[in-house]
Automatic annotation (TrEMBL), chains A, B, C, D:
Organism: Paractinoplanes atraurantiacus
Full protein name: Acyl-CoA dehydrogenase
A biological-process GO annotation: fatty acid beta-oxidation using acyl-CoA dehydrogenase
Entry keywords, A to Z: FAD, Flavoprotein, Oxidoreductase
Recorded GO CC terms: cytoplasm
Domain Acyl-CoA dehydrogenase/oxidase N-terminal: 9-123
Entry-linked InterPro entries: Acyl-CoA_dehydrogenase, Acyl-CoA_Oxase/DH_mid-dom, Acyl-CoA_Oxase/DH_mid-dom_sf, AcylCo_DH-like_C, AcylCo_DH/oxidase_C, AcylCoA_DH/ox_N, AcylCoA_DH/ox_N_sf, AcylCoA_DH/oxidase_NM_dom_sf
A Pfam entry, by short name: Acyl-CoA_dh_N
Domain of life from the UniProt record: Bacteria
Boundaries of every Acyl-CoA dehydrogenase/oxidase C-terminal domain copy: 242-391
UniProt record similarity statement: Belongs to the acyl-CoA dehydrogenase family.
Keyword Nucleotidyltransferase appears in the UniProt entry: no
Length: 400, 400, 400, 400
């Protein structure tokens, strides 16, 4: 057992921390999409800088990416989480492109890779993943209503999706769409995933959905999509028919590590802001930093961050050593605990800032929303708790 | 001891509930300020309907208003809280105008009443209250940096204010401004309040502040204001020099009752939405309404609402029977407990709605933000807890 | 709506507070049962004093008792809760005798009243209520395994009960036993209640059960009982066959008011101890009373007590005005919220006392155990939450 | 970074798990001290078995003990925590002897080692550590009132101590006593530690203190001690005069690892009991194991245990690699988070057991008390939070 980072990780951390100081934090103040949907122009400058600094596609194992393990990439994802609207995009490590690239790298045909993976790896286009639907509890994949029906050499897609992150960005050129090819098949082989280019007739990007008032315009918003007899060639199928659920499971593991480590970074940022605020404000003649309740928040935040980070790192280590399946409990555990933990910490940082903490003058309100929505994304925490509990109970079923 | 409403209150409740059904809820879907700052045109229609229904200025005791006691108005404020962006404004019972009208009715000169109270009571103009400042912990009134200096027959005002609710609305014509007339006086007589019309030279409405991404444009946003040698006649002083702190304390009591009862209404709305959602969604083959965790949320919500409402009603009763001072502990208690309680309930309602709960498709995200910011408004909860604890401890000081 | 006590209640409160000061608190230090099971001799002195002070059987409405309403008795029960091991017993207002006396007064035959109610009202004997069983989830009355079978003019009882409070006390002369007379009947008419004198052959008081290490010897412990072909005459039936569940429901309402108000009194006692301790201890050069975290505990405790008390009083008022059934939600609500609230408060008082708070040198550890066990008594909180949630949901069932 | 145990640790774990199954769990049912103070006779059998199994003094690094690192011993301490009243004592790894042996091994003279360390290592005597005092906040060492005054070749000790764990056991032969040799010296060099044999004249073991009703008689209780002109030779000084605080700090690090890992074991035991209970009880026609709220408890428990264990293991690793000082934050962090976490888990296990969970029929109530009291032992959590917060804030002091 050893809790130290290896040399390669330390080297990347050092370079990434320098990149944050030199490029990312200075870009924060003016980073707004304006009235449009998509990042401000400075992102291209940042991407170029990241590429030349060797900090590009760090998330992707294997030949197509930086070749890091999950355990090596995790602490880097944490650092990008300190500025979550900018750093992941600057390093071409932003969701949902990361998951889409992983899926294409693992399950894509050569042609699919050439057409979509290559520009995604180059950072010239963006992508989206269309799974969630407005009318059903999407945490249960068998609820999916979107149909993908074969008609000769084509698939015909009909349905409605919402909260499709990034889809409002006009540069989001390709959608991976989850739908049912065979509603009568067994529970987990009803679904398939197909590639749908943005300009396919019948596909309408209807509107952006807000999250607690934010449009998230600078990373392409969250769109409601309508698929009305959308036709794509059968070669746009990813993997095989009925493989949609399995593919979406495969992307979950790394995605949760990424999300959770970025959340840890957000928590560190919030704690840093809470501390500096507490040292600088003096209501009623005493610095906030000497108020017992504020100290309690700071101590609790530090302790909870340390606990949560270790659990995410262990989940990453398990994924690297025993695979997604062996890491199942830990992957669910981090999904359950990290968003709520970080939400709690950011809430306290906001409280220490007074009204300013809720405004555009600090990153805190946006960090809070990011943490809060991750209690829902990929299924609400409650679904994961129930599942984890059942596995725990199964250990004792034979003995009673 | 009697927990029933009196006949007059029951009559008002009945009529107000009907008004909500007939006028307010139907207006919710399209209620947006568009790109401007201020309410949509339909508000004028609603105001006319409220006037003709005898549901106007209900908040105001005495000759100028409906003449209700705090205990009688409280359950009506709760009902308006079910649609907090519309109902209070429709009934001319919205903050900060309510507090400003109370102050003018109690402390204003005849001329001040003629010029500002009358149009406010008529609902033809709006107003704002400029106290909070960006550079200091505003929960401590002695921190106020804005200066109000006498120069002959005028006051000269210099300073910066922020989070001034309603001030972005062009129809907000008058500001009550808190500043220091004598920084060297005793702690609570340094401050004065003066009336500053919107178009006074030197006053700049600089920008709107967001709250968790919301501009709150439809009720006039939250502005940052700059006062640069703003001059008003000395007759614009409210009450007397040095009386600013006392006046602001006087408005706090009723204001907290109003805020807290509206919060109770928001919680009831959220609980209703949680229940109807839980009955209509069936992930994994079982209605949410039969999930133990969701039932736990619903039961906890009901119990917490019942507790909180009783405490607010008791605080109102104490204000009516023994005055602001005798109700001090209860007024602080409701400020401490109600926002966090309602925040918790709305959070659970959001969780039961999945991603939709965070979007513009339900009122929940906006309700959450309203509850969250009231943990900060009028001073963070922590300041009030400390103060309440000291009074509790004082009961035992002589005995040890 | 009126939050003041009536004159009769105020008079009783004054006299009871004087009785506590004069008789109860001074008796606390030496109040131990020694090695036996039952109260120390001083209790008889206290009972005599209570009788002569007109503070006897206050819990019981109607001709047999003081004739107070639930709303009038509730604040008196609170006061007795400040010294829960002594005051209720001194006033002949201690569970489970109170519930047993209520049942006998309402459902008992004249002979049953003569034989058992009279000495209980006189305080010459004690009693117990035998419902909970070791092998089943007793919150579900249909689980009860004890059989009460008619055999000629007798009932034959077989079964095992545990956690039967008071039963170790040799002066506990009579048990009300719940069992099934007809296991095949409809769900809520399978059970009956019969009177079983302590010395009936076949009844064994097996052992005392501890609660968190306490034997509760001074109020008769919590016994495991074995009924092995215990025979009683059919005239020992209370009410009618199959009426056991209904009778036990009838006793629940007042019992919960009593328990919850006593808990409020315990919380007030704990808060008082927390405050006096905080004022007297000065670790690290600063009184505990000036530590922000301790102030936070004190403020939270005060606010939670005020909320909880109002809810219990409202439940009592509803019982008096619309009956047990109309007060159903509130009676469940207080069972759900009061024990956990008081547990929280006592925990903080213990923490402020350091190790001494867990020892016999303060009443706190015992108060904590009393609150904790009431999260389980009469069914775990979770059962009541589920039930309350279902009723809340039912309000919306028709609308979806 | 590597989250796997090394081979030696795995070997010890396997053997210790077998020992638990073969010897410890079977001894649980009858393990009571009866009316005396001290363990039942079976403990000697268990100790012999542990010795012959090579599971003896595992806690002690270096030549005198098993020579394991903190990181190696930690998972073994966890296992002993599954039966905390028996296993640690059986393996001669029980507090406070472990800390006393560490202190003697590190700071003791040869003669002190011969006389006291040898029999302690052999398990023929027990010991106690007398620091806490009844009249002061003992978390602040400068508050200590006990005097140790030199008089020729002797030290004269006067003072009162309480909550001295193990001291009621007649076989507790030696006390390490903390007192002030120089009250006028600098804050942390006022204190010294001296060895005081049990039978020294002037030393009175006054009484046992209960913890939530438990006497803890089977491990020697918690005594109040009076030192009235107790005289010991100056050669009984441990280390040097004024070194008492430093010595007590040295013992804290390993002690917290031991305590926290045993707590993790207790939590695992409670979770196991909660699961088996949930699978076996079926109130209202549905197993507890299928109740959403119970599943929530189980999932939360598993996640919290995983987090807490990793943090304790990291603290152990830091102690081994960078020393007590470098591990300061983590050692405080585990003291802050582990007891409250485990208390929460055990509380839920109790709730799942109903009344039985509070009784002597399960180990749960005693486990709860063990966790609860560790929120106070070695100073209340709040003191550690404040200290940790200050160090966190110090990181930002220069930057503001």
């Amino acid at each position: 057992m050893d809790f130290g980072f290896d040399a390669q990780t330390e080297d990347y951390r050092k370079r990434l921390l320098a990149f944050m100081d030199e490029h990312v934090y200075p870009a924060e103040a003016g980073y707004h999409s304006g009235d449009g949907w998509g990042p401000p122009p400075i992102l291209e400058t940042l991407k170029a800088a990241a590429k030349s600094a060797g900090l590009w596609n760090l998330f992707l194992p294997g030949e197509h990416g930086a070749g890091l393990t999950n355990l090596q990439y995790a602490p880097l994802a944490e650092i990008t989480g300190r500025s979550p609207a900018i750093a992941p995009a600057a390093l071409n490590c932003a969701a949902p492109d990361t998951g889409n690239m992983e899926v294409l790298a693992e399950f894509g045909t050569d042609e699919q890779k050439r057409q979509w993976l290559t520009p995604l790896l180059d950072g010239t286009i963006r992508s989206a993943f269309a799974m969630t639907e407005p009318q059903v509890a999407s945490s249960d994949a068998t609820n999916i209503g979107t149909r993908i029906e074969r008609d000769g050499d084509e698939y015909v897609i009909n349905g409605r999706k919402f909260y499709i992150t990034g889809a409002m960005n006009p540069n989001c050129r390709i959608f991976i769409v989850m739908g049912k090819t065979d509603p009568d098949a067994a529970r987990h082989v009803q679904q398939s995933q197909v590639l749908v280019p943005r300009d396919t007739p019948g596909l309408t990007v209807e509107r952006g959905m807000t999250v607690f008032g934010y449009t998230d315009g600078d990373h392409g918003g969250h769109a409601e999509l309508i698929f009305d007899n959308v036709r794509v060639p059968v070669s746009n199928l990813i993997g095989e028919e009925g493989g949609g659920f399995a593919i979406s499971q495969a992307r979950l593991g790394p995605g949760r590590i990424h999300h959770c480590m970025r959340l840890i970074g957000m928590a560190e940022r919030a704690l840093e802001l809470m501390c500096t605020r507490a040292l600088s404000r003096t209501p009623f003649g005493k610095p906030l930093a000497e108020q017992g309740v504020v100290q309690d928040w700071i101590a609790e935040s530090r302790v909870r961050i340390e606990q949560a980070r270790l659990l995410v790192l262990k989940a990453a280590w398990l994924m690297d050593t025993v695979g997604n399946k062996g890491a199942h409990t830990e992957i669910q555990a981090i999904k359950i605990i990290v968003p709520s933990t970080v939400e709690w910490i950011v809430d306290k940082a906001i409280q220490a800032h007074g009204a300013a903490g809720t405004s555009q003058d600090t990153p805190l309100a946006a960090l809070w929303v990011a943490a809060r929505t991750l209690r829902l994304a990929d299924g609400p925490d409650e679904v994961h708790k129930r599942s984890l509990a059942r596995r725990e109970l199964n250990r004792y079923r034979s003995t009673t």
